[in-house]
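Propose amino acids for all 445 sites.
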C-alpha cells in the first residue's frame, strides 16, 4: 500500500483525477474491464497525451456518441459581457440541451438519472470491495450535496451532474485506479477554486458552486479560493477527492516515488494540471509522533506500538433509525470500527453508548459527524495503544469466481477470513447462498 499526494493548485475535476492516476501507472486494462457492463451506454474512453506549458500530461475523456461538440459554452458566461443577449440563440442551436457545470470537462448534454438509478448501475459492475466502497462513498457525497443544494430528498433528486454517464465513469474509474495503485492514504492539503459565475442546468450560479461548497462543509475538504475567474473545482472532482482523502497534512519531509500529471480541459491563465505524487515519509520525519500521527506526550521520541483514539458518548433521545444511519456514516468516513452498547443512564433511562475507534487523521471529521447527527453534547476521547496482527490480502479461485481473503498473522499464528463484500458479490452472481461461497473460499486456501 502507498500514500498519494494530490496537488490541486489548479483545481480538480473527475477527468483530471483519473488522468493523474493513469499517468502514475494505474491499470487501463482494469479500468476498461470494470466498465464492460456499461458498453451499451453509448460512450467511448479516450486516453492520450497532451502538452500543457511544455509539460507532457495524460488526457482522459469520456466521449458520448453524437453529443460531444468540442465547444465549452460556459466560457461565454465567464468572459463575454454580452452572453445574455445570445443565450436564447445558443440554446436553440443546441436544441435546449442543459450543460452541466464542471471545468468544461465534457461540454455536452447530460442524461438525467436519480441517485437510486446510479446505485443500480454500480451494482452491475464487477469491482473489488475497495473500489466499490470508494465509488459508493463518492456518489453518496455527490447525492447528499446536490440534495441539499436543491432542497429535496436524496432519492427524489435527478442529477444532471451525478446522473450523467461521464460523471459515473469518472467516479468508477477513479476508484478502480486508486485500488489498482494500492493507494491506502490520500493527502489533500488544499484544493484551489476560482471565482466568478458559471452556468449549470438551472441557471447561472456563483463559484464555488453549491454542490462543491456542500461537499467541503460535510467532509472538511480544504478549499482555497484564488483570484482567477472560472470554475476550477467540479462537484465530481470535489467528491472524488473528499471520498478518498485521509489527511490534509503532508509529512514534514518525504521522498517522491512516482509522479503523474492529469490534464484539465480548461485553462484560466496557468495551465490546468492535477499532479498526483506517490510519496514515502522520509526517515526521521515522524520524530515526536507515534504511528498514525498521534503526538507523543510532551514531544520527544516516538512511543512504540500502534496507537488509536477511542471516542465515546451516551445517547438517550435518538431513534434506532437515526443511530443506524450514524453508524453507517462513521464507517464510511474512515472509522476503524464503531458500535453501540445498551446502557442505563440517570433516572434509569435506557440509552446507548456510542464507541468509535479511529486514527488521528480521521478523529476531527468523525467527531463532527457525531455532533451533527446525534443529540449528544459531549464526546469523551482517550488515546489507546493496541496490539494487532499483521494483515495482508490474497485472491483465491473458487468455482464461483475469485474471492478476496484477509490473511492475519502474528507470532506464528495465522488466520484467514474471506472478505464479506467479495463473498456476497460472488454469491449473488452465482445465484447461491453466502455460506456456500464463504466455505468454498476458506477451503481453497
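Proposal:
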Amino acid at each position: 500500500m502507498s500514500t498519494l499526494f494530490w496537488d490541486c493548485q489548479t483545481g480538480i475535476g473527475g477527468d483530471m483525477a483519473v488522468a493523474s492516476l493513469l499517468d502514475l501507472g494505474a491499470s487501463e486494462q482494469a479500468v476498461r474491464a470494470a466498465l464492460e457492463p456499461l458498453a451499451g451506454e453509448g460512450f467511448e474512453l479516450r486516453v492520450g497525451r497532451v502538452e500543457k506549458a511544455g509539460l507532457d500530461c495524460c488526457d482522459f475523456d469520456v466521449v458520448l456518441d453524437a453529443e460531444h461538440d468540442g465547444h465549452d459554452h460556459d466560457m461565454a458566461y465567464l468572459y463575454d459581457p454580452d452572453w445574455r443577449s445570445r443565450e436564447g440563440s445558443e440554446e436553440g442551436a443546441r436544441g435546449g440541451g442543459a450543460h452541466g457545470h464542471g471545468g468544461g470537462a465534457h461540454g455536452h448534454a447530460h442524461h438525467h438519472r436519480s441517485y437510486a438509478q446510479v446505485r443500480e448501475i454500480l451494482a452491475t459492475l464487477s469491482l473489488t470491495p475497495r473500489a466499490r466502497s470508494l465509488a459508493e462513498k463518492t456518489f453518496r457525497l455527490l447525492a447528499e450535496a446536490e440534495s441539499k443544494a436543491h432542497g429535496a430528498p436524496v432519492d427524489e433528486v435527478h442529477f444532471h451532474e451525478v446522473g450523467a454517464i461521464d460523471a459515473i465513469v469518472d467516479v468508477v474509474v477513479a476508484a478502480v485506479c486508486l485500488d489498482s495503485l494500492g493507494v491506502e492514504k490520500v493527502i489533500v492539503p488544499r484544493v484551489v477554486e476560482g471565482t466568478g459565475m458559471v452556468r449549470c442546468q438551472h441557471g447561472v450560479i456563483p463559484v464555488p458552486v453549491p454542490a462543491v461548497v456542500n461537499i467541503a462543509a460535510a467532509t472538511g475538504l480544504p478549499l482555497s479560493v484564488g483570484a482567477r475567474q472560472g470554475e476550477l473545482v467540479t462537484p465530481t472532482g470535489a467528491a472524488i477527492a473528499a471520498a478518498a482523502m485521509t489527511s490534509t497534512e503532508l509529512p514534514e519531509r518525504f521522498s517522491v516515488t512516482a509522479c503523474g500529471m492529469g490534464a484539465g480541459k480548461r485553462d484560466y491563465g496557468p495551465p490546468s494540471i492535477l499532479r498526483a505524487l506517490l510519496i514515502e515519509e522520509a526517515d526521521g520525519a515522524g520524530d515526536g509522533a507515534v504511528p498514525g500521527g498521534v503526538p507523543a506526550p510532551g514531544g520527544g521520541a516516538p512511543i512504540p506500538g500502534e496507537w488509536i483514539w477511542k471516542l465515546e458518548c451516551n445517547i438517550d433521545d435518538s431513534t434506532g433509525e437515526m443511530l443506524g444511519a450514524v453508524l453507517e456514516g462513521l464507517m464510511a468516513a474512515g472509522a476503524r470500527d464503531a458500535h453501540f452498547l445498551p446502557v442505563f443512564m440517570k433516572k434509569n433511562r435506557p440509552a446507548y453508548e456510542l464507541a468509535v475507534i479511529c486514527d488521528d487523521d480521521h478523529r476531527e471529521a468523525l467527531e463532527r459527524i457525531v455532533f451533527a447527527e446525534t443529540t449528544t453534547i459531549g464526546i469523551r476521547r482517550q488515546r489507546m495503544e493496541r496490539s494487532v496482527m499483521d494483515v495482508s490480502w490474497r485472491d483465491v479461485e473458487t468455482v464461483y469466481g475469485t474471492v478476496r481473503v484477509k490473511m492475519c498473522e502474528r507470532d506464528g499464528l495465522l488466520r484467514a477470513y474471506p472478505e464479506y463484500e467479495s463473498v456476497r458479490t460472488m454469491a449473488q452472481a452465482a445465484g447461491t447462498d453466502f455460506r456456500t461461497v464463504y466455505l468454498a473460499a476458506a477451503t481453497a486456501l
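DSSP finds 13 helices and 21 strands in the chain. The first helix runs from residue 14 to 24.
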